[in-house]
Amino acid sequence: MRKLWLVLFSAIIMFPSLAHAEEKETLVRIVNASSNNESVDIYIDHKPAVEGALFKNATDYMTLKEGAHTIEVYRSGEKETPLIVGDVETEGNQAYTVIAFEKEKKMSLKLLNDETSAPKGKANVRVLNLAPVSNDLEASIKNGKKLFDNLAFNDVSSYEEIKAESKLHIKDNDKKVTSLSQTLQSGSAYTVLAVNSRNQVETILLQDNAILSPSLVPKTGMGGMSSSHTLSYAALVILGGCVFFLRRRHQ
Amino acid sequence: MKHFFLGSIFLVLLFFNLPYTLAAHHDQPALLLIPTANIVAPIEAHGLSQNGELILPENNNSVTWFQNSSSPGERGNAVIAGHVDSKKGRAIFYSLPKLRKGDTFFIQRKSGKMMSFTVTKTAVYERNQFPVNKVFGSSSKRTVHLVTCTGLFNKAEGTHADRLLVTATLNPFSH
């Protein structure tokens, strides 16, 4: 009888922790920023995630369980010796970018935690310097403020909130300016990778708008005071006025 | 020996359950006071519904503290959401847009302890661009996020087009 009580008591205590053992998801994308002109195969947790990725190729966000994941990069078609193996730790409801790039002639991995949006009328942008030819990048927006300077190789800036529809300019060591052809859209977040393949800085523009658990966005209104209803009430008042006016005119 | 074995199982189960046991004993937030916006709101603790949506209070004068987020004043992101309107008229967070960067508001815990927070940012996001990772993710700061609806009401989707997000951090010496 005593044993039965113990087992029952344990089960009761265990139950809430089972209810709380909810597995969260995380979003991960991979970019090949290695400029050695080799295509690569990238594996996540020993399963192929992308095959034959060329320089500047980026995957879409992939959904994974939160926690630790192993990233392996191989030369395309080879599965013997990885160019690099790295472990990344991810948290639930977060978005990440894993970047494979060359550092001192060896493949390296970098993990970035991504913003996924910006307020209305604004855009969030950050720059990662993976261009070995330039150890001092500067970024600014056209006719606007300087966002940052002295961005060394392998450094990433923080996200800067800028006016939507702005154009980003990046200036390298030699004061050569690379301008992004695309304007940055309202509500979006971007990562700009500065890379180089022929002694010249080039850019990879990534839009960081990952869709993370949209159901978590609370529905905090019933519409009783919203503009659409206000318009309906206004329309009713105008209609009532017209009916009253017409009736008086007929009398 | 059998008792020792059963006792060990019990201790192991208790150990794995520890985070839950600790969480259940937090000094929960009880009252939200925002002088700038004339808001005094009882705080209810809620989780997610079966379809994964944040449960909101049934009455329009209270707000929800998402109990799976940090408790206000603790390290991490605490999320408090309230209705902007009901079907008939204004609800508790109708005047939330009056809050500006630098404003102060207060949260009282059930124990009576009062904490003050300073608004660091107010921003409007389109619903499908709401920064879920920033609001619901982890943080090393002691942050409170106040969330409500704003913008046009979409009848087909039964919700507003945008969300107002007010972000605030705990004032030093207030805890």
- Low-pLDDT stretches of chain B are 10-25
- The CATH class of the largest domain in chain A is Mainly Beta
How would you write the strand order of the largest sheet of chain A?
Answer: 4-1-7-8
**Quaternary:** heterodimer
Structural class of chain A: alpha+beta
> Helicity of chain A, in percent?
10-25%
Descriptors:
heterodimer, A: 251 residues, alpha+beta, Immunoglobulin-like, 2 domains, four-stranded mixed β-sheet, four-stranded antiparallel β-sheet, 2 helices, 41% strand, globular, B: 175 residues, mainly beta, Sortase, Chain: A, eight-stranded mixed barrel, 3 helices, 39% strand
Question: Can I get a quick summary?
Answer:
The complex is a heterodimer of chains A (251) and B (175). Chain A has 251 residues and is an alpha+beta fold.
How would you sum up this structure, described in words?
The complex is a heterodimer of chains A (251) and B (175). Chain A is an alpha+beta fold and 251 residues long. Chain A contains two helices and 16 strands. Chain A folds into two domains: 21-114, Immunoglobulin-like (Sandwich); 115-213, Immunoglobulin-like. Chain A is globular, with a radius of gyration of 27 Å. A four-stranded mixed β-sheet of chain A has the order 4-1-7-8, with no helix packed on it. A four-stranded antiparallel β-sheet of chain A has the order 3-2-5-6, with no helix packed on it. In chain A, strands 12-9-15-16 form a four-stranded mixed β-sheet, with no helix packed on it. In chain A, strand 13 and strand 14 form a beta hairpin. The longest helix of chain A has 24 residues, at 227-250. With 175 residues, chain B is mostly beta strands. Chain B has a single domain (27-170), classed as Sortase, Chain: A (Beta Barrel). Chain B is built from three helices and eight strands, in the order H-H-E-E-E-E-E-E-H-E-E. Chain B has helices spanning 2-16, 18-23, 132-136, and strands at residues 29-34, 39-46, 63-66, 76-81, 104-109, 114-126, 142-154, 159-170. Chain B has an eight-stranded mixed barrel with strand order 1-2-3-4-7-8-6-5. In chain B, strand 5 (104-109) and strand 6 form a beta hairpin. The longest helix of chain B is centred in the N-terminal third of the chain and has 15 residues, at 2-16. The radius of gyration of chain B is 19 Å and the shape is globular. The termini of chain B are far apart. The interface between A and B is large, with 46 and 59 residues.
